[in-house]
Each structure stands twice: as C-alpha cells, then as structure tokens.
Design brief:
Strand content: 25-35%
Largest sheet: 6 strands, mixed
Radius of gyration: 19 Å
Order of helices and strands: EEHEHEHEEHEEEEEEE
Oligomer: single chain
Low-confidence stretches: none
Structural class: alpha+beta
Length: 248
Amino acid sequence: MRPGIDTIVAPPFPRGLEWVNVAMLRLDQQLGRPVLVEFWDFCRPNSLRTLPYVKAWHERYAAAGLRVIGVHSPGFEPSRDNAAARAAVARLGVEHPVLLDPELEVWNLYENLGWPARYLFDQRLTLVDYHYGEGAYAETERAIQELLGIERDVVAPLRPEDDPDALIAAQTADQPGAYSGPYEAGAVWAVLDGRGEVVVNGRPVAVEHPGAYPIVVHERHTERVLDLRVGAGVTCHAVCFTPGVVGV
C-alpha cells in the first residue's frame, strides 16, 4: 500500500538493542539504498508464512542495493527471550540482519499494528510502501524493483492461498491456550514451549524448541474438530488458524 503522503521518514533504531547476522546497523548509514523493514515473531504463524518471501527478496536484491532488516518483536512469552530468537533465526535460515526488540521499543516507534508488517523506504529513507499481514507479495516486490530500476518476474505464489485470485474463506479466530474444539481453516498451528510432545487428533507431535508448530494441514479450507492434548514439559500458549482456498 502506498502511503498518503511522502514525508514519513524511517525513525532511527534505538541504541543498545541486540542484532543478529550483523554487529549493528544505523539507519542513517543506509542513505542511498532502499530499506525494507519487516516486523515479525518466530512464534507467529503469519510471520513464518511470510518469511520465505522476505528471505527471497534479500537473496534477489541485496546485491542490487536493497537492505532487508527484520525487526523481531515478540507477541508471545517464549519469543521474548533473545537467545530463543537468535536460535530461531539460525533454525529458519534467516541471513539478513535481524534487530531484536524484546521490549517493543522499535514497534512503538513505528506505531506498528500487528504481525507481520513491512515498511519499504526509498533511498532517502522516506516511506513509499507498507503492508500489514500476509499477502501483497507481488506488490511489494514490484515496489522494490521500481526503486532499484529492475524488471524481472516476481516470486511465484508459494501456496495456493497466496495467489491474489484465490478464493479464501475466513478462518477461525486464534484461541488462547491449548484449544480443542471445532474450527474452520486451511491449517492449524500451536504456539508451544518446552520439550516433550503434544498429541493432535491421536497423533504425537514432538516439541523440541519454542515456536509455532503446524499441527494440522489441509489441502483447502476445511471444517473439522481439533483434539489437542499437551504432554508433560510442554506449554501451549495459543492455537492459531491460517487460511485455505475454497473449492479446490
């Protein structure tokens, strides 16, 4: 989405926060190159579903001048731990710089509204495009290309529901704690911490690290009943639902 005015400038990052993959970055040192800032959380399924696109933009356009910066702002207790966030960055294969924002300092500077959220700034560090939530991947990539003076095919949709022309049904709202019961969705995720296992509709799922685990995946939007049982040593912070296409 294009901002209504072109006078919004990227705020400087607070000093004293930890970085991953770089020693430190200052925004004023990024003048002359486009900067994409992505707010995410390794415990948020929507962040994990968007992450492959963000990684692809870094791989495709870093050499042409794009600077991708992930701001890890936690929404669940397990992701407030910087060590857990660092481990997640490594586990998920994130190679672009990540700023750890455990107290939501950067989040508040941006007056951010949710996960994921991305802000694209031009070479003057002026906001030219932004988007909240999943989707609009082609629009963001074309805006990046416009700033860089590049024309090429954009990353193809990675899932059927990512296609802008796909018919999507509303999924069940996220539920706190270890929810069991009816739902409608394309997939079910559990935000888990600790070590052990959970049993999902009679099937054991190993829990080896904190994060969002896809515990049920359907080919399309589906109505089902979830039976989730949490074993010893594991905490379930929430059960989340992501969309699926209708009529496939």
